[in-house]
Write a structure and sequence with these properties.
about 210 residues; mainly alpha
Length: about 210
């Protein structure tokens, strides 16, 4: 049995995190992510009950939000701790392969599904809810790259790249074609590293404030 996760599923020398409004926007983003995770778990509960009937499922509390690369390993360890060793990450961590789990009865199969439900709830992946939090992060990020970030770069003597219109910025946000605020800093990688350290990109600030 192979399970797809979508189914079961500040500037200058100030420290990162001091940008105006960052704390408020990350708090709101986290609430939105929590709500999206709760909806995901409700759909998963419906899937399990559609398979097994109106069964009772455990109340699940998030242990830790994880990166996508961690998901397969976290699920494997969680399932093993629940009494079902043998589940392994497959397809470069995109799925869980249950073929190594030793189960014989319907009761044991049900127990595996319940354990999967609980493990999925305990270790949600932030990037699964990227679209849910997009509307929270984008307005703050655009304001930051058109105000605080260019002021910071200019104050330290670096050339400032002009940000694109908000709709273009949004369309390319968190992609390989995203706006590069350091495009005019210069070709020296050490200079660029200094600029990004003193005047962090919005993604660095947002991700650094992740749970």
């Amino acid at each position: 049995m192979v399970l797809a996760p979508g189914i079961l599923a500040a500037c200058a020398s100030a420290p990162i995190g001091t940008a105006v409004g960052l704390e408020a926007v990350t708090a709101k983003r986290d609430r939105v992510a929590d709500q999206a995770h709760e909806r995901s778990m409700q759909r998963l509960a419906e899937f399990v009950r559609g398979k097994w009937g109106p069964v009772a499922l455990p109340e699940v509390v998030v242990d830790r939000w994880i990166d996508y690369a961690e998901w397969g390993g976290a699920m494997s360890e969680c399932l093993a701790a629940a009494g079902f060793p043998g589940a392994r990450a497959a397809d470069e961590g995109q799925r869980i392969d249950y073929s190594g789990v030793d189960v014989e009865s319907a009761r044991e199969l049900f127990a595996v599904d319940v354990a999967t439900f609980e493990c999925q709830g305990r270790f949600p992946v932030r990037t699964w809810f990227t679209e849910s939090v997009r509307g929270v992060e984008l307005p703050w990020a655009y304001e930051y790259v058109t105000s605080e970030l260019p002021s910071c770069l200019a104050r330290h003597g670096w050339a400032v790249a002009e940000a694109p219109p908000s709709d273009e910025f949004a369309a390319r946000w968190r992609t390989d074609e995203a706006f590069d605020p350091y495009a005019l800093v210069g070709p020296d990688p050490l200079e660029r590293a200094s600029a990004t350290a003193r005047c962090p990109a919005p993604e660095a600030l947002l991700d650094g404030a992740s749970r």
